[in-house]
Design brief:
The chain is of the alpha/beta class and 302 residues long. It has three domains: 101 residues, Rossmann fold; 82 residues, no CATH class; 92 residues. Strands 2-1-3-4-5 form a five-stranded parallel β-sheet, covered by helices on one side. Strands 9-6-7-8-10 form a five-stranded antiparallel β-sheet. Strands 11-12 form a two-stranded antiparallel ribbon. The chain is elongated. The mean pLDDT is 85.
Length: 302
């Protein structure tokens, strides 16, 4: 799919066409693509038409048709037909353009693991920059991150956001239009998103790299950060003194991906601090925990 959409109209009421033209200008780049209105529908990707118009495919062979319907007629509309209520409103146009972008999305999107790595990097970058910003993730969908409240807002369910592949754009400052688009969308604590994201990456053996050097925790992770096996033990060790990733792996016999994911998430959330005075410890073979240690680990007690 191109990074732009050309939009046209056929026989819309004058007021609705004026509103459509204004919304195309207003929403340009907001959905992660460039929007442009063209009077020649043969050049258009999306064409809005009135319910009475009979449109031939020869007129616009590759365009997606969106029909303007009265609310009383919407129930009879075919399930696969795109429509928008009249009179035109911003929320209706945004919704139908997101549906169009989903239809036009690439058949082979980026791999889920690549997407998870890109999302983790984007969230970590936004936290360092601060402020209130928006990230387009393809198909007209947005993420809104507030680094003051540490909350992430998205119309995409969290399971789908992490478990399905999307396309990360670039962060930009949030606008009133973005707020309107995400009005009523679910809000997630950022720490929960990052812990679930890094756990999914670690499970696929593709965790983000841990920060270099030795780190110790200044405060414990939230409950979401202690749900993964091994995390309570890592938190206990890093509370006692600073450790490098290699020292943690040697002390716990945990997989490299688990250790790296834990350290990277703690660093992103500002839970730890690098210890420049750290003296490397002798790295020996890890001792498998006895039954008491295994019980503590299962119960998340240590």
């Amino acid at each position: 799919m191109n990074d732009s959409l050309v939009i046209g109209a056929i026989d819309l009421p004058g007021k609705d066409e004026t509103v459509l033209r204004a919304l195309v200008r207003l929403l340009d780049c907001t959905l992660g693509v460039n929007l442009r209105f063209d009077d020649d529908v043969s050049h258009c990707d999306v064409v809005f038409v009135s319910a009475e118009v009979g449109v031939t495919r020869a007129l616009m062979p590759s365009a997606v048709t969106v029909t303007l319907l009265e609310p009383s007629n919407q129930a009879a509309c075919a399930p696969d037909r795109l429509f928008v209520p009249c009179p035109l409103r911003m929320s209706g146009v945004i919704g139908v353009l997101q549906a169009v972008l989903s239809r036009l999305a690439p058949a082979a999107p980026v791999e889920r693991i690549q997407w998870q790595g890109a999302l983790f990097a984007c969230l970590r970058e936004a936290l360092r920059r601060g402020g209130r910003s928006v990230l387009a993730i393809g198909a007209g969908k947005l993420l809104l991150l507030d680094t003051v409240t540490l909350r992430l807002q998205s119309a995409v369910p969290l399971e789908q956001l992490i478990g399905q592949a999307h396309r990360a754009g670039a962060w930009r400052a949030a606008s009133a239009v973005d707020e309107e688009m995400l009005h009523g969308a679910a809000v997630h604590p950022l720490h929960e998103v990052l812990w679930r994201l890094s756990a999914a990456m670690a499970a696929a053996n593709a965790a983000p790299l841990a920060p270099s050097g030795a780190w110790r925790l200044q405060r414990w992770p939230s409950a979401a950060g202690l749900m993964t096996a091994g995390h309570p033990r890592l938190a206990a060790l890093l509370t006692q003194r600073a450790h490098t990733a290699d020292e943690l792996m040697a002390s716990t016999a945990l997989p490299s991906a688990t250790v790296h994911a834990f350290l990277a998430t703690c660093e992103a959330l500002g839970l730890g601090v690098r210890d420049a005075t750290h003296t490397p410890q002798a790295v020996g073979g890890a001792v498998a925990p006895g039954w008491l240690g295994q019980l503590r680990e299962r119960l998340k007690l240590w």
